[in-house]
Amino acid sequence: MKRFFVSQSLVEVESLKELLSTDGILCTIRNQQGSSLAGEVPFVEVFPELWVVNDADFDRAKELLEEQGSGDEVERPLWVCAGCGEKHVGLFTACWKCGRENDAKSEARTGENKGGLTP
Fold it and tell me: For 56-110, what is each residue's pLDDT tens digit?
């Protein structure tokens, strides 16, 4: 397991984890609750960290991060959760609100095309 990405923003780390997960790269986030330790330990030690579980996936994860940052990523349309109606960027594979998966059977497209998130 290798540390792949560190950020002050848990949202940024979770978005990147979702991107890697959609490509089949198993990841884990450490220090998700680290902000509760702020002031008790050095601040850089409580930032959320994204770790790639399988070392063999590390290089592919770096490639995906570079593609994401280059602006060359494939645009993904927004989708609406069929379970609760929440709108999501196409990068996400499950609804953050109700947890329902975005698959071909449950997916409802909004017709808007916003592209992916940039870390």
Answer: 999 999 998 888 765 444 556 778 888 898 887 766 778 878 888 886 433 344 4
Query: Residue 16: inside a domain, yes or no?
Result: yes
Residue 63's alpha-carbon distances to 16, 20, 96, 115, 117, in angstroms, are 12, 10, 26, 18, 16
pLDDT digits (tens, 9 = 90+) for 9-37: 888 899 999 999 999 999 999 988 766 65
Cα torsion 24, 8, 86, 91 to 10°: value is -30
Contact 20, 52 (CB under 8 A): yes
Q: What CATH number does residue 46 fall under? A: 3.30.70
On whether the pTM is more than 0.85, the answer is no
Alpha carbons 72 and 31: distance in angstroms, whole number: 30
